[in-house]
Amino acid sequence: MSHDRPHLVRTPEEVRTVLDAHRRAGRTIGFVPTMGALHEGHLSLVRAAAAADDVVVVSIFVNPLQFGEGEDLDAYPRTLDADLDLLAPEGVALVFSPAPSTFTPETRRTTVHVEGLTGGLEAATRPTHFDGVTTIVTKLFNVVGADHAYFGEKDFQQQAILRRMALDLDMRTEVVTCPIVREADGLALSSRNVYLSGEQRRDALALSQALRELADGWEGNVDSGRSTLLGRLTAAQGIQLDYAEIIDPETLEPLEGVRSGDCQAVVAAWVGTTRLIDTMRLRV
Ligand SMILES: Nc1ncnc2c1ncn2[C@@H]1O[C@H](COP(=O)(O)OP(=O)(O)OP(=O)(O)O)[C@@H](O)[C@H]1O
Ligand SMILES: CC(C)(CO)[C@@H](O)C(=O)[O-]
Ligand code: BAL
């Protein structure tokens, strides 16, 4: 069965016009912010939104504010036509894909910054990244005015920061975190996987495999767990480890000693020039 592509709009005004009518009719709005190059991970967020909300909105915007100097802003895959085709059967009411020149103009003077959670892990390598994310997500939340916004657990630090931001700033949009979607062999789906050669893709499996082994054997010993994870990933072929940490899932603080409560393992590594992240919950 063929489906119509979702309605594509380019300006905040058009989004508001369409969504105001739904709001007046008492419908809830679920929002899925993305940078496009959509895959099953994104579609799982769209399906979570469709299951809980009456109207689903997806944004597709490769946000220049969250890319540091020398990162892959220009190379980042932009596949709007294919994205709209993928969304067609998913019951998405609206796709918002603004032009960078109007949505992030040179004249912008405001940055949204979340203290504390934005200091380590991803931010150690990408120091300006989260200010770019929180600023753009604030803009998107203001434009869409959703009841719920759906984010992937894969970007674990990001969802914790956005949850805090929405709480601290009394945003009307509630942040909902959804599980990671993986390939059959465990590799976490990512738009950046398209950069990988066949050999690099095989090397990249070390990330999910090391996390899986850690989670399967987890008895709460953070120190030995962390050194096993580090040992496994520093020895892995074709991978240059950035970090491997076991953290508190709420505060994101690195943990020590023995813990009976839930912990979160987070890793980041370069496979060639591609930087990948992955994460897994550790439960005794
Ligand atoms: N494998 C996945 N499972 C579930 N959600 C995912 C997955 N990959 C990405 N997401 C979520 O999709 C949303 C949009 O992410 P984004 O467009 O950056 O995709 P991405 O695949 O993470 O790309 P990148 O490789 O650039 O990080 C984010 O909330 C992200 O956490
Ligand atoms: C949340 C987001 C769409 C903001 O640009 C991006 O960081 C992403 O895709 O995870
Ligand atoms: N999913 C986070 C987007 C980024 O890496 O910039």
TrEMBL record:
Gene: panC
Subunit: Homodimer.
One GO MF term attached to the UniProt entry: pantoate-beta-alanine ligase activity
Note: The reaction proceeds by a bi uni uni bi ping pong mechanism.
Family, as annotated: Belongs to the pantothenate synthetase family.
Binding site for (R)-pantoate: Q66, Q158
Pfam families according to UniProt: Pantoate_ligase (PF02569)
InterPro entries per UniProt: Pantoate_ligase (IPR003721), Pantoate_ligase_C (IPR042176), Rossmann-like_a/b/a_fold (IPR014729)
Top-tier EC class: ligase
Keywords from the UniProt entry: ATP-binding, Cytoplasm, Ligase, Nucleotide-binding, Pantothenate biosynthesis
Name of the protein described by the UniProt record: Pantothenate synthetase
Binding site for beta-alanine: Q66
Its biological purpose: Catalyzes the condensation of pantoate with beta-alanine in an ATP-dependent reaction via a pantoyl-adenylate intermediate.
Positions annotated to bind ATP: 35-42, 152-155, 181, 189-192
Catalytic function, reaction form: (R)-pantoate + beta-alanine + ATP = (R)-pantothenate + AMP + diphosphate + H(+)
EC number(s) from the headed UniProt entry: 6.3.2.1
Any one GO cellular component localisation term in the record: cytosol
Keyword NAD recorded: no
Cellular compartment(s): Cytoplasm
GO biological-process terms attached to the record: pantothenate biosynthetic process
HAMAP family given in the database record: PanC
Organism: Euzebya pacifica
UniProt-annotated catalytic positions: H42 (proton donor)
Pathway as given in its UniProt record: Cofactor biosynthesis; (R)-pantothenate biosynthesis; (R)-pantothenate from (R)-pantoate and beta-alanine: step 1/1
ATP-binding is among the record's keywords: yes
Superkingdom, natural source: Bacteria
